[in-house]
Amino acid sequence: MSGKRTAMSHQRNLSPCHVRQGVVRNLTLLLDYWREFYACAGILAEKGSENLQKVSKIVT
Fold it and tell me: What does pTM read for this prediction?
């Protein structure tokens, strides 16, 4: 219980500037994560389309 109480009081002591910095940091982390995710998805999509083209050539 005491751990939760101190965490709450610590959050109250945070200035808006600190909060804003934390939010910005989290947003940049999220953007980096999404950028990597989309890069991976793009690579997978390219490979998938290549495989589809190969299959369609074999089928036709």
Answer: 0.43
Average pLDDT over residues 39-57: 88
Q: State how many domains the chain has.
A: 1
- Domain enclosing residue 11, as ranges: 2-59
HEC string for the chain = CHHHHHHHHHHHHCCHHHHHHHHHHHHHHHHHHHHHHHHHHHHHHHHHHHHHHHHHHHHC
Residue 43: left (phi > 0), alpha (psi -120 to 50), or beta?
alpha
> Which segments within the chain are labelled E, that is strand?
none
